[in-house]
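URGENT: need a sanity check before tomorrow's submission.

F., can you look over the Hemerythrin HHE cation binding domain protein record below? I want to be sure the sequence and structure line up before it goes out.
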Amino acid sequence: MAVNTHDMVVVHRAFRREFGLLPRMVTGVFADDGRRVRIVHDHAREMVSALHYHHQGEDELLWPRLRERAPSQAGPLRRMEIEHAQISALLDTVERALPVWAQAPTTSATVELAALLEEISSQLAVHLDDEEEQLLPVAAEQLSPPEWAELGRRGLASMPRSRSLVFLAHILEEASSDEARAFLGHLPPPVRVLCRLVGKPRHRRETAHQRAGIDVAMANRGTR
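Structure tokens as predicted:
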């Protein structure tokens, strides 16, 4: 029986959304608004770290198994590894640029950081499309349910405990009711309850602050 890999699509959707929004979050911050600078900085840093760990989990738990069991996929697997390396280099650059920008959010620092995030968003969209179209169907046939579950546990374990419920809510923000039910079904009942009672309210509050400057960024772009 094929493994249901759709939960990976749900996770990818969150990364697409947040990295798509981050450039506008950055350009929507006023340089003298230290509180919002810190909010956007912290969110960007968390997303960069989460994507690093997500790709690391695939590099260690997914690609080696597929290479062994589906040798005909050597080409696409090699492309995934190359794309991971390219995105990782950009993420490392953003990690270095973030504290510089947070300390002095000048126009030049803002433009540089936003451009880096735009490039990540662009490359990530292509990479995730490739992965979902070419390799998730192979993973569904080649991995056992315990092996697929191990990849999911690895992803959740990479998040600090204090942030895991909020990140779960990020993942489920655009999920349908069926997707959310299936995703949460892998988790213990107490975690599901905490996600609803704690994670989702915190996520709503945080995203309201994180995205508050997006309209400003779009207005500024429209006047150029």
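My own read: The chain has nine helices and no strands. The CA atoms of residues 46 and 85 lie 19 Å apart. If you see anything odd, call me.
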